[in-house]
């Protein structure tokens, strides 16, 4: 975000549903301004509601003076960040990292228990829905999948234009299917697709709601 939100935009973003990002109220001009800035999108199906994009969720968090999380959420504190694949330079790995990842995953399960209305731990919580790439990467790394490094294979988790969806790339077909199984077990809906130009296979994953 290159400039701060206006007061009207701030009110719209703050009033959005914390889980779905659905925007309520606002004039067509105000909503169009958020869409133009990449902070919201207009759903193609009736009633054509507007929703925050991942960038919109981040903008709300960046400017909000919220109370601390009841449980430390992975990557929210800046202390821990799941590996999304392709980091440069490649981070170190070893027993210490493994302990960090396992601890972060347990913290995520506890965050689910405390913030999901029914206390469920088998599906993603609101924090994960607003940090899709980090959440999916944490589930993969915690399950032992190898993130991609320079010149080597492994998974890569990336944002997509679709609401509440990330793409997972893995050049090895068997490893890609294993990533799909891990994400499904962690509460994500997963489909496998082929890019039209490169013919590369990839996963499209979204947090499950029920």
Structure, explained:
The longest helix is centred in the middle third of the chain and has 21 residues, at about 95-115. The radius of gyration is 18 Å and the shape is globular. With about 210 residues, it is α+β, with helices and mostly antiparallel strands. It has 7 helices and 6 strands. It has helices spanning about 5-15, 30-35, 55-65, 95-115, 125-130, 130-140, 175-185; strands at about 40, 50, 155-160, 165-170, 190-195, 200-205. The protein has a 4-stranded antiparallel beta sheet with strand order 3-4-6-5, covered by helices on one side. Helix 4 packs across helix 6 (about 130-140).
Give the assembly state of these chains. Answer: single chain
Describe the biggest sheet?
A: 4 strands, antiparallel
Shape: globular
Query: For the CA atoms, what is the radius of gyration?
Result: 18 Å
The chain-level mean pLDDT equals 83
The percent range for strand residues is 5-15%
Task: Give descriptors for this structure.
two-stranded antiparallel ribbon, four-stranded antiparallel beta sheet, 13% strand, 210 residues, alpha+beta
Topology:
Blueprint (H helix, E strand, L loop, with lengths): L6 H8 L13 H9 L3 E3 L7 E3 L1 H10 L31 H21 L10 H5 L1 H11 L13 E4 L6 E4 L3 H13 L2 E7 L6 E7 L3
Antiparallel strand pairs: 1-2, 3-4, 4-6, 5-6
């Amino acid at each position: 975000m290159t400039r701060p939100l206006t007061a009207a935009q701030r009110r719209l973003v703050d009033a959005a549903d914390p889980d779905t990002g659905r925007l309520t109220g606002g004039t067509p001009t105000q909503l169009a301004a958020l869409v133009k800035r990449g902070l919201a999108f207009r759903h193609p199906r009736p009633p054509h509601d507007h929703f925050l994009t991942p960038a919109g969720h981040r903008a709300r968090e960046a400017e909000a003076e919220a109370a601390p999380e009841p449980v430390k959420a992975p990557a929210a504190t800046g202390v821990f960040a799941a590996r999304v694949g392709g980091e440069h330079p490649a981070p170190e790995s070893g027993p210490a990292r493994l302990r960090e990842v396992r601890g972060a995953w347990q913290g995520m399960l506890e965050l689910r228990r405390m913030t999901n209305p029914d206390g469920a731990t088998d599906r993603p919580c609101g924090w994960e829905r607003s940090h899709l790439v980090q959440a999916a990467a944490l589930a993969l790394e915690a399950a032992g999948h190898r993130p991609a490094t320079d010149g080597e294979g492994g998974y890569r988790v990336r944002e997509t234009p679709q609401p509440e969806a990330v793409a997972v790339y893995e050049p090895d077909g068997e490893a890609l299917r294993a990533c799909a199984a891990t994400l499904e077990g962690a509460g994500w809906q997963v489909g496998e697709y082929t890019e039209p130009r490169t013919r590369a296979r990839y996963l499209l994953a979204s947090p499950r709601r029920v």
